[in-house]
Amino acid sequence: MRAELAALFTKFVRYSAHWRGLWPAPLLIAAIVLVPAAGPLFHALFPDLRNPIYGRASFLELTLAHCQLVAISSFVAAAVGIGLGIFVTRESGREFAPIVSAIAAAGQTFPPIAVLALAIPSLGYGAAPTLAALAVYAILPILEATITGLHAVPAGARDAAIGIGFARSDLLRRIELPLALPFIVAGLRNAVIINIGTATIGSSVGALSLGSPIIEGLSASNPAYVLQGAIIVGLLAVTSDRLFDWLEGSRLFLDLKGGGFNGG
Amino acid sequence: MPVVHNRVLLALCCAGALGVGFGGFLEVAPNRLARGLALPLWQAPFPEAAAIIIFLSLLALLAFMRQDKQRSIATVLAAAGVLWGSLAGAGHFAALLARADLPAARSSLGLAFWTLVAIAFLAMVDAAQRAKPPLPLRIGFGLALGVGFVLMAQAGTFADLSLAKEFSSHRAIFFSQLWRHIGLVAGALFFALMIGAPLTALALRRASMRCAIFSSLGVLQTIPSLALFGVLIAPLSALSAQWPFLHDVGIGGTGAAPAIIALTLYALLPLVRNSYTGFTEVAAEVKDAAAGIGFNARQIFVSVEFPLAAPALVSALRVVTVQSVGLAAVAALIGAGGLGAFVFQGIGQYVMDLVLVGAIPIVLLALAADFSFQMLLAAARRRM
């Protein structure tokens, strides 16, 4: 009985150690819930302000809008970036690899804010230019990571798979992509973190996001709004980063890497 | 059936044809606020429009030829022709459209123009990747393009484009904002080096500190720029209210101080991580050999470790500089000035040409920093 309890305990410790990297998540939830109720605190910090709590939209609403912008744009960027990365590493698309790599490298020196501003003439103000700019910009790190990952697949692994009779599509799906997955996920992580930051600036072109209290606070000289938006979006970014860290070490990921995408 | 020898070039020409077919070459509006009317390329002045079409067809034709040195040179020249035609055509077109009775009318560059410029540059990059010309030739050609552009600008080719009008009406502020932008980046680099060097030394000496340093710098790196800029405002304004001398030296809640602090914090992770890797990769045998011939710790550092880690340091500086140039643009939102001020002012007034007055130099600055550090890196590697 005691041995069983001990085993259960070690299991619990190991399990919780696995989750320990996610420490910012409860902080994020606490901040979303508690900031609206923290009126007295912000009043004490900034006694001159009439309205110490941002009230244009609830923080939950802002967080969800922010996550929506980042999720949709990252998803589109991942589809395009991974697809393009696969294309230029195939026989048929190899000719395009140098120019695509050059575009991806030079494009990443463009500041995200410039991409954001240049999307306005065609798409107007609001969420649309922000979404488009986020998606276009996020393609670059994902594309670069996919190309790097697929190039890093050892020739031996490829040859062995061909030797035992893998078809081209199977080779990609069961050997190359699983081996390149750590690189691709690292690129995706990079893209998501950049997007969380750029979506914040997206408020300056009229998108609703956690940047809205910051931008409004800056223009109306209300440091309390700025602080509230900044704390929550900072925690959101750190949480997402930790989430990727956790994902990269989790069982699911190791299964994908080891056994091919069809779980075989 | 003709054989395609360069599918990249053919794809670029198709993209160019689509841009010309569906996008406006110039967009004209009666004033700053009204929506523009897109004018296609075929309404542009004949000589330049014809030159663009001819050079574009020439590029497409070259895609069907065997790729050798002569064809690559021809590709670069045809691409330069497209570039020249687009620039001169846009300027000439705007001059024709300009009317004395409508001084507020605007001619902005349209989608077709930007597509043509982009494919011209990409065709040149593609040709350079195939023919692999020596570096001096590439730099010389780049300089020639730059000089050509400046000469065209001096001759007043672009004077009637609203981008040029926006630029000349902000000329005085433009250069001060440009220097301010560079100053913000340089200040952040300076402080990042000052703080990064001892942090790297600490990470190298103390294994126990390493994890703490990297994870806390990692968290800082993740925080959105606008949030970090914003968070610094309240404590800094409190400090400068407390100690007036801080206010007198220009440190306050808004302005350059929070911008430089935030940019410094962002620069620390790439700087410390790369220099840490650079120093750990110096082989122990080399250090042992140096110690064996009687070098002391200081001499080993100065003449063995530092030169061997130099390429890693330079590539760290490259990443950090490019990143800071982009992030400094956001600092305009907290009153730090810099080229980002034009971008946000343009967004606020819905004047895209003003956005471009800020955005184009930011991109050029980032590309120039990237290029110069790449040259420096090549030099550092050659010396090894």
Folded structure, characterized:
- The complex is a heterodimer of chains A (264) and B (384).
- Helix content of chain A is 77%, strand content 0%.
- Chain A is built from 13 helices and no strands.
- Chain A has helices spanning 2-19, 24-34, 39-45, 59-89, 97-107, 112-118, 120-123, 127-151, 155-163, 168-201, 211-219, 223-249, 251-259.
- The model of chain A is unreliable at 259-264 (pLDDT under 50).
- Chain B has two domains: 7-160, Butyryl-CoA Dehydrogenase, subunit A, domain 3 (Up-down Bundle), CATH 1.20.140; 171-383, MetI-like fold, CATH 1.10.3720.10.
- In chain B, 77% of the residues lie in helices and 3% in strands.
- Chain B has 15 helices and three strands.
- Chain B has a three-stranded antiparallel sheet with strand order 2-1-3.
- The model of chain B has no long low-confidence stretch (mean pLDDT 88).
- Classes of the chains: A mainly alpha (264), B mainly alpha (384).
- Chains A and B meet through helix 5, helix 6, helix 7, helix 10 and helix 11 of A and helix 1, helix 4, helix 8, helix 9 and helix 13 of B.
Q: In short, what is this structure?
A:
The complex is a heterodimer of chains A (264) and B (384). Helix content of chain A is 77%, strand content 0%.
Secondary-structure element order of chain B, N to C: HEEHHEHHHHHHHHHHHH
Task: Considering residues with a beta carbon less than 8 A from a beta carbon on another chain, report the largest interface and each chain's count.
Answer: A-B, 44 and 47 residues
Strand content range of chain B: under 5%
Say what the CATH topology of chain A is.
Answer: MetI-like fold
**Contiguous uncertain segments of 5+ residues of chain A:** 259-264
Beta percentage of chain A is under 5%
* Name of the CATH homologous superfamily of chain A: MetI-like
Q: What number of structural domains do the residues of chain A give? A: 1
> Which structural category fits the helices and strands of chain A?
mainly alpha
Instruction: State the major sheet of chain B.
Output: 3 strands, antiparallel
